[in-house]
Design goal:
Rossmann fold, alpha/beta, 207 residues, globular
């Protein structure tokens, strides 16, 4: 599949009807997901790899990896509703494409996930509701994988560089994104607005 085909399929996935504010369940748009995943694919970080999608939500990143040839994807989320939606999306894609997808779904806190993988691709909470939750996700990703793709606010640049170095990782690339946040909660005044976000590609030193 090419980038556009991936984008179209991912746009058809079911999303949250009632997102959880505390978990910052803002949907990763299919255009953004396909763009980042295509870059990861060209970096040889997806095809035939075992991947974890931490805080998977509806699974858009993990399913994109599978469509691009990932060997297996672990979908991990503490929200039971998110895992159920991801399972529905697996059924949809398998029916649509007449294929079997190798998925493992885990309804658990990411701190309880211990399986080593080749790559983590994640869009974690930015830490606006639960302080330092983004650091928790980043630390877990570095614990279980040698290559990490992780979405964060651009303003986190210095923290990510410092934290990565302390954990034995180096920043290889940062892909800047205008990340749309649609009106999902009562305090949102605008129909949508954009946040300056980056997707960091982090690689363990020595690789």
């Amino acid at each position: 599949m090419d980038k556009k085909q991936i984008e179209i399929l991912l746009s058809k996935l079911k999303t949250f009807d009632k997102p959880n504010l505390l978990l910052e369940q803002y949907q990763t748009e299919s255009e953004i997901a396909s763009q980042v995943l295509w870059t990861a694919y060209m970096n040889k970080d997806i095809e035939s790899k075992v991947i974890a999608d931490l805080g998977c939500g509806n699974g858009v990143l993990g399913f994109g990896c599978l469509l691009l040839g990932a060997k297996k994807v672990y979908f991990i989320d503490k929200d039971k509703n998110a895992i159920e939606i991801a399972k529905e999306n697996k059924k949809f894609l398998e029916k649509e494409l007449k294929i079997k997808l190798d998925c493992v779904f885990s309804n658990k806190d990411i701190r309880d996930f211990k399986t080593s993988v080749d790559v983590v691709i994640q869009n974690p909470p930015f830490g606006t509701k639960i302080e330092h939750i983004d650091k928790l996700f980043l630390g877990k990703a570095m614990e279980i994988a040698d290559v990490v793709y992780s979405f964060h606010k651009i303003t986190s640049k210095e923290f990510i560089e410092s934290f990565s170095s302390d954990e034995g990782f180096k920043v290889k690339d940062v892909y800047k994104i205008d990340f749309p946040l649609k009106r999902m909660f009562s305090f949102h005044k605008k129909k949508s607005y954009y946040v300056d976000v980056g997707c960091w590609r982090l690689v363990r030193k020595g690789l």
